[in-house]
Amino acid sequence: MNAYQVAVTDYGFPDLKQEKAILEPLGFHFVTGSCKTSAEVAALCQDADAVLTQWAPVTADAIEAFRKCRIIVRYGIGVDNVDLEAAKRKNIPVVNVPDYAVNEVADHTLSLMLGIVRKIPQIVQRVRAGEWEIAPCRPIIGLQNRVIGVAGFGNIAKAVVQRAQAFGLTAIGYDPFVSEEVFARHGVEKVDWQTLLSRSDIVSVHLPLTKETRHIFNEQAFRAMKRTSFLVNTSRGGTIHTSALIEALQSGEIAGAALDVLEEEPVAPDSPLLQMDSCIVTSHCAWYSENALMRLQEYAALEIKRLFSGETLRHIVNGVGKS
């Protein structure tokens, strides 16, 4: 007899074999959905002991309908689709999976940086069109002795800095929640927000989406950046005010942007961002490798296993159950 129910609100994986292999031996049975609304989340999860969610809106109204839930696990790092305070009011820990794709995102960040700075897509397009130039798309800057500024200094930012330093870049960083000692340990100078913007030749965004960080890259921020600087974002699309970025690129306020995340996804086919040589857009795929995909599903299920086996949860984000 099944002792517990785990509700999976939505998922983009081929199957749930890994989760079932971990949780079914503990007596879990699975109910799954493709929830697009909070009402659908509430209906699917009302009798669940545990909830796994990827993109579905796990709102306060939905959480209020949960009768038995003891844990909510977000497939991924960001938790902006889950109302953390509503879960806290019901004493439900919300857990994320921050460590499944650190290297993949860092690799993708450097790939975007190199692509936009070296103008790789434009050059490839010209070669395919029959144009062969040994100094194309001028000007192209060298990376040595340039400054990369990281906005946020979590695990991915640290991995990005390590890679960037191998290219000869000097690193500075902004994160009010990280000490100077931690920055220094990684060879990074801690700076304030305005200094990050004004000194960086490349700004790499590694921020969660919160009230404080939404649209932190706005008209004022772009005006503070160098006209020769580049913006790379592999964190959360909402940290950038899209129309302000478009204006900054069109007016030459910054030299370029490379984005894996956008405020609205998928990107509209007629978005000006897709029409400009100064912008590269990829499809929120920085996290992806086959290995990372497997880790994401495994690590999410293991958090549920920990709770129901009396072990300590590793990645609580709303403070419930932390000692």
Automatic annotation (TrEMBL):
Family assignment from sequence similarity: Belongs to the D-isomer specific 2-hydroxyacid dehydrogenase family.
Residues spanning the signal sequence: none
Coiled-coil intervals, chain numbering: none
Gene Ontology molecular function terms on file: NAD binding; oxidoreductase activity, acting on the CH-OH group of donors, NAD or NADP as acceptor; transcription corepressor activity
Database matches in InterPro entries: CtBP, D-iso_2-hydroxyacid_DH_PdxB, D-isomer_2_OHA_DH_cat_dom, D-isomer_DH_CS, D-isomer_DH_NAD-bd, NAD(P)-bd_dom_sf
Any matching Pfam family: 2-Hacid_dh_C
Residues annotated as domain D-isomer specific 2-hydroxyacid dehydrogenase NAD-binding: 110-286
Protein name: C-terminal binding protein
Key words of the record: NAD, Oxidoreductase
Ranges where the D-isomer specific 2-hydroxyacid dehydrogenase catalytic domain occurs: 35-318
Organism annotation: Paenibacillus contaminans
